[in-house]
Every structure is written in C-alpha cells, then in structure tokens.
Amino acid sequence: KNEVEQSPQNLTAQEGEFITINCSYSVGISALHWLQQHPGGGIVSLFMLSSGKKKHGRLIATINIQEKHSSLHITASHPRDSAVYICAVRSLVVDYQLIWGAGTKLIIKP
Amino acid sequence: KAGVTQTPRYLIKTRGQQVTLSCSPISGHRSVSWYQQTPGQGLQFLFEYFSETQRNKGNFPGRFSGRQFSNSRSEMNVSTLELGDSALYLCASSQDGTYGYTFGSGTRLTVV
Q1: Left if phi > 0, otherwise alpha if psi is -120 to 50, otherwise beta: which for B65?
Q2: Sequential pLDDT tens for chain A (110 residues)
Q3: CB contact under 8 A, A96 and B48
C-alpha cells in the first residue's frame, strides 16, 4: 500500500462544477503540499498545510491531521484548471523527504 | 525574482553515455531537491542537497549522483545511461527544505 493515496486518479467534469480531490496518507507528517502540473511539465506549488484550511482564489485546501486526510477543492472550475494535481507529504520519519501521491488528472470540459 | 532554472531543457543521449543536468535555485534558497518523473512511476525523489551537503537520498542506483556548489547551484549526474532513465528530471528549491518549494521546468532526457 502506498503511503500517500490520491483519489480519484482521473476526473473529467464540466466547466463550472465544484471539484474535490482527496489525499490520504499513512505516515506521520509535518506538512502536506498540493501541487499543480500542467501539460509540458511545469509544476506550481499551490498550498502547504500543516493544519486547518487555506484558500487562494477558487482553490481551497483542507487538512485533518487526526484523520490523515486532505482535500483540494476547486470552485467554479474552468478549462484552464485542467492539469495533474499532486499531493505530497513531508514525513516525520524521514526528515525533509517528500512522499508523493500518484496525482489526479483533471480535465474540465467547456 | 528569477525562478528555478534548469538546463538544458531537452537532451538526447545514447545508452552507456553519461549526462549532467544543472539546476540554479531561487536566490537565497539553500535547499535543492531532484526528482525523476516517468509516466509509469510518477514523481520519485532522487536526493536533496542543503548547503553543499546531501541531506537525503531516494532509492536510486549509484549511477545517479549529485552535488551542490557554494552558490547553491546543483548538478545531477547519471552515468552509464540506460533506456529506462528516459524521463523528465525536475529540481525544486526552497529556503531550507521545510517550506515553499518552487519547481523548475525540468530537463527532458531521452536515452536512445
């Protein structure tokens, strides 16, 4: 079993829909990152969370440390949101090392 | 401010050759991490350097090595290239490896 599991693996939705991507992990962590990778390889760091909730524009990230679970929400989705969304956790066991989820490929259709 | 710069962007090498990739972090960032991304395996951690010292290493063979210079620029070297080394190699920098990773655009290596 992978230490970081993302769901769904693939998600196709219509423009305007509310999107939720989930990330569950099994190790103790000091922080969790959400990243976005566009076709062509460019990776953008969206959020780093250690507790609670963060919001930036139409993106919202939440984390529940007790349940070892985080969600990334996109409100009013747009085709330009189409990308791979990756969750990564910083392990308490292996310091400074990020453990990566496999990513969620999101396609937003106009 | 300038982002993380990786050079070259694209590279084609022959099996058995060696290759050196370069990563210039954001000014002031002392941590540089390297990742390999392939369609089947996703992002895999190679190693992390902080203040010229390798602080962490992933599960890759010894053919993969790296170093960091006093100006925080980092190089990654792969010797005796294999076809399976074809991948996108990404580096990320942060101030101290605990916050705010910024990724470069990557170097796409093709081994033929």
Answers
A1: beta
A2: 678 999 999 999 999 999 999 999 998 888 898 999 887 667 788 888 888 999 989 999 999 999 999 999 999 999 999 999 999 988 777 655 678 888 999 999 99
A3: yes
